[in-house]
């Protein structure tokens, strides 16, 4: 177990409950309807408690976070490999009774185990203690501040003023660095979720700063992507969302996160 992570909340004294939680669905007896029913209930409780703990964490991290900011942070974190990391560092993984080869994505399997374990921990220790345990684990993860972005980022022009059919688009890069030349076909494969997952795996803090200039009906957005407080990517576009994505993509390639290391 990693010293950075809290130990598992103990449920081992409840042997039947413990075995229900750590047993993979494929290892259950086909006739064990009671066990299937029990783990289903525990997982549902676990899902709700995990979501509450995540939302509370991001609420407390930044008082400027809006409701949509909090939801985006929660969803971005859940898309990473956080449950697999937790399963290893909290020493849960060695207790699991699983098939030799997991049939689906391992992180999704670990997520199911954690949801069940959280539900079981709640049934023994109560909400407050279980919530604190999750919060402690979550604080070991990099905090990803993901500003809420409009879907298109373009403000509609005032009535009577035509919109620009070909709004200007720019690319930029951090001061003192050379521009990156990335194959567009490769660049477009890198999503925000992929960038955030890469940051999470490397325990890097990532955040964005956005500003606009120009006329209100035809703004130019500049978005800066910072990693551990340092500018690593910058982009400009008439769309705030596109500028953010481009800045994140530049960061991804500039730091070599596309390499398998």
Automatic annotation (TrEMBL):
Name under which the protein is recorded: DRBM domain-containing protein
GO molecular function, one term: ribonuclease III activity
Superkingdom of the organism of origin: Eukaryota
GO biological process per UniProt: RNA processing
Keywords: RNA-binding
Gene3D superfamilies, A to Z: 3.30.160.20, Ribonuclease III domain
Spans annotated as Disordered: 147-178
Parts forming coiled coils: none
Residues in RNase III domain copies: 13-126
Source organism of this protein record: Coprinopsis marcescibilis
Domain DRBM: 190-257
